[in-house]
Automatic annotation (TrEMBL):
Pfam families membership: Claudin_2
Signal peptide (UniProt feature, chain positions): none
UniProt keyword terms in alphabetical order: Membrane, Transmembrane, Transmembrane helix
Listed transmembrane segments: 141-163, 175-194, 214-237
InterPro entries: CLDN1 (IPR042356), PMP22/EMP/MP20/Claudin (IPR004031)
UniProt keyword Iron, yes or no: no
Major place of residence: membrane
Membrane topology: Multi-pass membrane protein
One GO cellular component term: membrane
Name of the protein described by the UniProt record: CLDN1 protein
Length: 253
């Protein structure tokens, strides 16, 4: 029996570590602003011309999707799930030479921004609602929280299991981690689809390169970790239960 118990203990410890790492990765990716990055190859002179107005439009309450996306294109923008950032010259004299210090300024998406309708032509509210993009955006905002919630709930059940010295709840923990993995995959899929659709409507200018950033990669790594943890939890619980039953049969005999 002791040999077997070690195997389960090891599987459960590894599952817990994977679960913890994936939770940290998810939290970090939700909290950082590098889901998508724009690299503007000639930003400095663009900015000095119209910099002040770009910045004011970017931060204004009524900045629509087209306005802030244009600013992201022109000023090395980065976008997170919660915030958007652009890099602009530090000093207020916009006409000074371009090689001044640059500073990155961010503005948060408000809750209403997260749920606002996206239009078929970004920035033109007469063009009708683009349902696909509207729901993709809402999902990419909600799914990471569902994912983290499922894992935390799984962890609670796991703690109770330890307290009761029972492995049955490990199956529930495994299932919750599996669902969390599906949510994370869904989040990544929604984000990629949303960016694709946006760039079809607002193509990148010639001198701008766009790429997914490291915050996005953290979410991508998080999903397989959740699935691996799920598999280990379920495997440990099921195999242990089988051997426990065999052991009982053997004792009875």
């Amino acid at each position: 029996g002791a040999m077997m118990d070690n195997r389960f203990a090891t599987a459960l410890v590894i599952a817990c570590v994977l679960s913890l790492i994936s939770t940290i990765y998810m939290a970090a990716s939700i909290g950082t602003d590098f889901w998508y990055e724009y690299h503007t190859l000639s930003p400095a002179e663009n900015i000095s011309e119209a910099g002040r107005s770009i910045w004011e439009e970017f931060v204004s309450k009524d900045a629509d999707e087209k306005t802030y996306t244009d600013a992201l294109f022109r000023c090395n923008g980065t976008v997170g799930l919660w915030r958007r950032c652009i890099t602009v010259p530090k000093n207020s004299h916009w006409y000074s030479p371009p090689e001044t210090d640059m500073t990155t300024n961010c503005i948060s998406f408000s809750l209403s921004d997260q749920f606002v309708e996206k239009y078929i032509e970004p920035g033109n509210h007469n063009s009708g609602t683009d349902l696909n993009r509207t729901y993709l955006w809402r999902l990419q905002f909600l799914l990471p929280f569902v994912s983290i919630g499922l894992m935390c709930f799984g962890a609670l059940i796991g703690l109770c299991a330890c307290a009761c010295r029972s492995l049955y709840p490990a199956i529930a923990t495994g299932v919750l981690h599996f669902l969390a993995g599906l949510c994370t995959l869904g989040l990544v899929g929604c984000y990629v689809a949303g960016i694709e659709l946006l760039h079809r409507k607002l193509p990148l200018p010639e001198d701008v390169r766009g790429e997914f950033g490291w915050s996005f990669c953290l979410a991508c790594v998080s999903a397989p970790l959740q699935f691996m943890a799920a598999a280990l939890f379920i495997w440990a619980a099921r195999t242990n239960r089988k051997e426990f039953t065999l052991l009982k049969a053997y004792r009875v005999a």
